[in-house]
Amino acid sequence: MRKEDVSGIIVYVLILAIAVVFGITVLREHAMNSGLDTVIYVIYIFGAILSGVLFNAVMYEMAHIAGAKAGRYDIISVDILGLLWYREEGKTKFKFKGYDGLTGETVILPKKDVKKEPNPTPYLLFGSLFYAVEIIIIVVVFTLYRNDDLLKNLAYFLLVMGVIGGMILIYNIIPIRLDAMTDGYRMRMTGNAANKKAFNELLRVEYAISQGATDVEIATFTEITNFTADLNLNKVYMLLEQKKFAEAEELIDIILNGKATISEKVYVRARCQKIYINIMTRPLEEAKEFYEKEVPMVERRDISNDRSMVSVRTYLLMSGLLDGSKSECLYAINDVGKCFGNTPKSRKKTEALLFNAAIDKINELHPSWKLTEYYINYEEKPEKKKKK
Length: 388
Prior knowledge:
Layout: H1 3-33, H2 38-70, E1 73-80, E2 83-88, E3 91-96, E4 104-110, H3 121-145, H4 152-173, H5 183-189, H6 193-210, H7 226-241, H8 245-257, H9 264-281, H10 284-294, H11 297-305, H12 309-322, H13 326-333, H14 336-341, H15 345-365
């Protein structure tokens, strides 16, 4: 189970605990004094929850839109609970679509020809500020009218909506990677100027790829952080797919030279890319010499323990070509399905090609192992043709 999956479960348990405590304390007491019979009260609470989800989802994305405008971004699409509005050929269109978020997603693109670099902080901050203001207002209204005979049920109705907003706020401000990209996580990642530039470049690249561009010019960064290193790796993947191994290795070295400013996981995966290139491009004896001199035992262990496609295909080459161990090759292959499933969509095609190339390399030396039956068969789904 991935770290973000575990973190997501913990946050969901916390949110559920808040809901349970609120239900058995505040709502239980209100149920006894509301003057509503059981069936009507259940409908009342269900209506409050539904209203809270809808209201908070809509207002949250409206806050994102306002923040994006303030930060000098164009709005590409707005998805609220799976209902997507987007612009195409100068017209606003609608369709049902999934999203990366708890209640929705607003996709943005840095404006061109602006004097200042677009700033993502308002876009990432306004949603949480909205929830904070909403909660304060609802608490004040609830305090004023909770004992009013005419308005107390309305006050509790609003309180339920506010609690829904509070739950979404808790999820959204967590500054770690969860099962969806939260604003809190992205705020932490864009905490310096280099990361803000990388964030904007990532938006541009992802949008270009989503529009079907196949040869996207990707900016690279010399100030290395986890975020800029990951963006540089986008360029590395493009170069590897084009078999421009020397250029890819130069860019990887920039990442590795920033070891002190990146996480161990990012460093290990960048090392994997370098080892993979060297084993794939050098004669076997030279590759073995590089492996013995340049890859210490601690790195070999880290690579074998890391569960990602780049580590799997690198460990596969290390085991098959340099250690001559079929059992270790099968150990690496055993994790391919899960690792490939966790690979970002933009990298799946390249990872399939690189993994299959590693299989071919080992098969040349050990054809009796019959590893070619473990090829990854991956084809990108073609985009639907637009109606003229």
